[in-house]
Amino acid sequence: MVVMDKVDERFLVEIWKRQLVSADNLVTGSGERVQVIYPGKENRDCGPDFVMAVIATERGDMLVGDVELHLRAADWKSHGHHRDSAYNGLVLQVVWEGEAPVVLQNGRTVPTLSLQRCLSGSLGAVRYWTSLNVMPAEPCHDALERLGDDELGRLLDEAGEERFRLKADRFAAEMYREPPPQVLYRGIMRALGYTRNKEQFEELACRLPLAALEGFCRGKPPHERVLKLRALFLSAAGLLKDEDNAEREQVQDCMGVAKPMDLSCWHLFRVRPENHPARRLTGAAFLLARFLEEGLLESVLRLVEESRSDIGRLEAGFMVGREGHHCCRERALIGQGRAREIAVNVALPFTFAWAEANAHAGLAEQALRLYRVYPGSGGNEVTRGLLRLLGLKASALADSSRRQQGLLHLDKAFCRPRRCSDCPLAQRLASVPGVEAIHELPLYGVGWSATAQRSILTTLG
Q: Which residue(s) pair with 109 in the sheet?
């Protein structure tokens, strides 16, 4: 029996994240064997510890959802999770000791898996592995050293181009169902929501369609357009303060008594003040007011066309300072970083899709050319993690938005679902002399048969 004081929840997180477990002993308290296809993404917000996990059961079920970690199985109830609907997406509780299943707030029962009896080695060995930056068993570890700068850069460029075209294809499909200006507007709003509130911002764009906003603001001077748009956004979002009576009256004049979104819909836990949804919606009001005179679609297309190779001009078009100006001032409502995200993830792929659909070859080439020369941003947890895996010096290679987007594409399309055999980077590494082929690489080191693995990957798509 291992003494409990040697183990804490951070240690459990590292074990689960790196899957330092023995495949044969992955058996829940109810006696069912499971396989971890993807342990999930670590959640640093409130709610479950890991989200979007994929767990296969011995019965052949594919469970996609959240995972919660505790030292003891009894901690589930003592922490009050059984009364919290935020945990209703749970598919597995992972603990150090204990086997009792848990009952969710919605009444569903979820099994418990104890890590204490399924470690991949001694406690000391597992501690050593958790102290390392990466797991060298990954097929793409130290790819920079094995492939060199030019080849790895080429692969990242190709992955970045694939992500760009996939985004453009999605915009093109959406433009068959909705007017192009509304599709563009929804894309910009989603980008302004950041990771935690992107769905909520998109929902708001559906509740307040662009055509309706244009009608509300038609004939109004710029300053009044901003006030009206801000009031509409905050009221529909359920974020108006009790003392905002003047804005509430404006909204009632425009929308009547439409029910706003519930405040509980918004993720506000550990959100920095400058990223608060109310502040981002104020920035959105200034941005839309700027574009509505000419029209949002026309303004963005012109901005891309006239930018040529001037990245600064394109970014400035989406930046909003403290008082609504183009320039990025201290604590800007929409700063350079978010403006760059809008340009790379929305404006350029949307323009490419619109131009191709309207036989405007020159504009499509311009959008793709700008994307290819766009500088990189600070990156995020996903890109930084992959760069550590590929080789510490690889960070110098990811100096462009295209290559950073390439890393995101590899992570989403291949790393998360463990589709190593289909990954272009792993395939290229497998062709290097002395590197073992990965066509039957076990998922997270779990030794199930290749036939079972192929069946699982087919189910995942």
A: 103
Q: Give the pLDDT score at 365.
A: 96
257 pLDDT tier (thresholds 50, 70, 90): very low
**pLDDT for residue 458:** 45
Q: Are residues 202 and 184 in the same domain?
A: yes
Residues 153-195: pLDDT tens digits? 999 999 999 999 999 999 999 999 999 999 999 999 999 998 8
pLDDT at residue number 453: 44
Least confident of 251-255, 385-389, 407-411: 251-255
- The structure tokens 């906003």 sit at 213
Residue 222 near residue 289, CB atoms below 8 Å: yes
Q: Could you tell me the sign of the dihedral formed by the alpha carbons of 406, 412, 418, 421, in that order?
A: negative
454: in domain? no
Domain count, the chain: 3
Side chain identity at residue 164, one-letter code: F
**Is the pLDDT assigned to residue 318 strictly greater than 90?**
yes
**What integer pLDDT is reported at residue 6 of this predicted model?**
74
Question: Do 32 and 56 contact (CB within 8 A), yes or no?
Answer: no
- What's the whole-number mean pLDDT along residues 23-37? 88
Domain assignment of residue 71, yes or no = yes
pLDDT at residue 448 in the model = 38
Q: Is 378 exposed, middle or buried (0-12, 13-18, 19+ CB in 10 A)?
A: exposed
Amino acid, res. 404 = Q
Question: Residue ranges of the alpha helices (H) in 58-148?
Answer: 75-78, 123-130, 143-147
Give CA–CA dist 297/355, Å, rounded: 12
Q: Is residue 447 part of a domain?
A: no
DSSP string covering 29-44: TTS-BEEEEE--EE--
Give per-residue burial for 383-410: e unless 16+ CB within 10 Å, then b. Answer: bebbbebbbeebbebbebbbbbbbbbbb
Task: Please state the rounded mean pLDDT for residues 244-265.
Answer: 63
Q: For residues 251 and 369, state if they share a domain.
A: yes
CA distances from 41 to 45, 68, 150 (A): 11, 12, 30
- Give the residue numbers spanning the domain of 46: 4-130
Cα separations (Å) of 174 from 168, 180, 185? 10, 8, 12
Query: 125 and 54 in one domain?
Result: yes
CA distances from 284 to 86, 274, 324, 349 (A): 29, 14, 10, 20
